[in-house]
Structure prediction request, 123 residues.
Amino acid sequence: MNTIDDFHFLKTISRGGYERVYLAIKKNDENKTKYAIKLINKRYIVLNECNVLAIMNSQFVVRFFYSLQSKENIYLIMEYMIDDDLISFLCIKHILEKHEAQFYVAEIALALDYLHQRDVTYW
Prediction:
């Protein structure tokens, strides 16, 4: 059975109001597969994010592997996306070319459409 102690946290990827996302690897994984681990304090869980992520199967939604928990936190073990998130990209790029903006708006629209078709609300 997996525990959060099986992972080595490499760095913080992002921080939100009630959560943090870390880049991590399993300690005994010879392949050094990278994972994104979202830590959510149990006091702030509004939706059952684990169940929602478990049924998602789209190239536009990050892949969910499994969840772990401690007394105070829930850890979502998810696919690590190699590229930075859109906010980081925009901070570096500042201004997008028209074709770049169209591409990213289309990607976001497809992701939101996928979630909407499954009655998932995301904010």
In short: The longest helix spans residues 98-117. Helices lie at 49-54, 86-93, 98-117. The domain at 4-117 is CATH 3.30.200.20 (Phosphorylase Kinase; domain 1).
